[in-house]
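User: I'm designing a mutation panel for Glycosyl transferase, family 2 and want to avoid disrupting the core. Could you give me a predicted structure to guide residue selection? Please restate the sequence first so the numbering is unambiguous.

Assistant: Good idea. Sequence first, for numbering, then the predicted C-alpha cells:
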Amino acid sequence: MNANTGNLVSVVIPCYNNYDTIECAIESIKVQTFPNIEIIVVDDGSNQVTKNVLKKLSSHINILIVQENQGQSTARNRGIEKSQGEFIVTLDADDSFEPSFIEKAVRMALDDSTVQMVSCHAKVIYENASFIYKPKGGTLQNFLFENAALGNLLYRKSSWFEIGGYDESMRKGWEDWEFHIRLLKIGGSCKILPETLFTYNRLQTSTTNLANQNRLQLTKYIFSKHKELYKEYFEETVDYFLQKIDNLEGNKNKAFQSLDYKLGKVLMSPLRYIKRKIY
C-alpha cells in the first residue's frame, strides 16, 4: 500500500515550558515527506513565555489543547483523544524527527499488520557530547526488563484505545516503557528503522533524568502492575535479577582494585591507627 495515500498521522506534542525548543519540534514535523499529518500540541500548564511562543506558532498547529499541569501521560492521552489519525506519533517538545521518519514508519506498519510500533535509531545529545542509540525493538520478551524502543515513535490509535492509553499516575517517568509493555501484551512487535531519524536532547530537566532518580520506585511499580506477566516469565525474571547481583559484585570488586580505593586506603591508615589508640 502507498504510504502517501490516506492514513492520516496525528503527531501529539506535550509541551511544558519548552519555549526555547517547541518551534524546532514543530518544524521537524512540518518538513516531513509524508503529506497527511495533523499536529496536536498540548500545553500542559506552561508559563506565559511558552504560551506566547505557542500563539506565534498557531498557524502551524492544527489543534492546541490547554490544560493545567497534569504530566506527560495525561497530556498525551488528551491529545490522542482529540486526534483523527489512524496512526499516532508521539514527540516531546524538546526533540525532533528527521524529515523521512513518518513516511518510512507508516510504510513499515502498513507492510505488516502485526507491527505494533515503529521506532528508529537516535542521536542522543548531552551538554558536551553525543552518541547514537540503537534500540533493539522486538516482541514482549524484549521489553520485560528494559524499554527496547524510543518513547517517541509511531503506533496505531486503535491499539492505544484498546489498552486504555498511557498510565496517568506515572508522573516520574518510564510511562512510555509501561505503555509499550501493554501494547505488546496484545500481540505483535516493535520494528526499528535502522537509521538515525530522531534527535533526543538529554536535558537536566528531562523526564529521563527524573526517572533515573526514581528508578527503584518505578521498577517496583511496573513489576507489581504486571506481576502476572513476570510470573509467566519467572525464569527470565530470576535470571535478570541474578545478573543484576553479579554486575553489582563485579563493580564492587573493580572498586576495591581501583587506584583511587588503594590510595584512599593508604591515606586512611594513619587515621585509623590514631582512632584505635584513642578509643
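For picking mutation sites, this is relevant: The chain is about 45% helix and 20% strand. The first helix runs from residue 22 to 30.
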